Structures are given as C-alpha cells and as structure tokens.
Amino acid sequence: MKIQDMMQIALMTAVIGMLGLIPPILLTFTPVPITLQTAGLLLAGGLLKPKQALISLCLFLLVVAAGAPLLSGGRGGIGVFFGPSGGFLLAYPVAAFMISLWVNRLKKVTALRLFVIYVVCSIVILYMCGIPFQAMMMHIKVSQAAFLSLIYLPGDLIKAGMCAVFTVKIIQAMSYRKRDLHKGRRAV
Fold it and tell me: Which of 4, 98, 111, 146 is the S-S candidate for 164 at Cβ 3.0 to 4.6 Å?
C-alpha cells in the first residue's frame, strides 16, 4: 500500500472521529441517537477506493473498540458494539465498501447518482443490519424496531444529499489540483 493511500485512510478515519465531536440528538423513545458520523461513512465511500474505505471504517471501529470516545456523545469501548446501535456500527465498513465499489464503476460522478448510491447503501445496508440487532438488544419485535427507525429516514436523506454535493465538489477540486500539477503549476 502506498503512503498516499495510508494518508487518505488516516485522514478519513480522523474526519469520521471528528464528526463524533458534534453532540448527538437523543430521542426519548429509542436509545439509538441521531449522529453525523454516517456522513463520514458516506464521504469515505465516495472519495476512497473500495479497499481504502473498508480499512478506514474498520480502523475507526478498532479505535472505538479500544476505548477512544470517538462516537457521538463521547461513547467508546467494546461495550458500544453490544448496545442497540451496535448493528449499525458493525455495518459501517460494509456500507462504505459497497458505496466505493459503486462510485468507482461510474463513468461520470454526479450529485444525483451519488445521492442514489448513498441512499441505497446507507439506508438499506445499515438498516438491514442495525434494525434486527436493535430489536434483539431491546427485546422487541423487528417490526417494532423498524417502526422506531422511521424517525431516522429524513435525516439520512438530508445527509445523503449534502454528502453527494460535497463529494462532487471535492472530486472536482482534486481534479483541478491534479491538472495543475501535470501542467507544471504549483498546487496551492
């Protein structure tokens, strides 16, 4: 693995951790908070290669498991994986990997295409893993956990839209930088 790849992995892992500094929105009827860390997952999948995205999210989860309070609300430690949000957390690497696979197959990256990929991967994959796990941990039916999770849909759609636009802008900025480097100009 190249040094540039390792730096991109570390940078994205740090971004996801920094998003954990933003306080969560706690709901009274479900123990799973609303956080911005899923936005970091979307950006990792949209900007990194599949293997890099997978490693970045696995690294993030390993650091959290080691006790670093990087999850929103200052949570950390192995115990967070055995709580109601554990299934969502464990699905992070899979979702980032799938996003990256789909994005890397696009001939042209647009905000609309990214939005669709982000919605499918973040909502479908995370919810498929997170809802049954949440139901098991809370000792409720899966249908009841799915109903409780409907509250997250508007926020996840907003995050997917914002991240799609940010990803396109970052990709455009990086391509301008590469073009300037190839023409012999100094990148700023």
Answer: 111
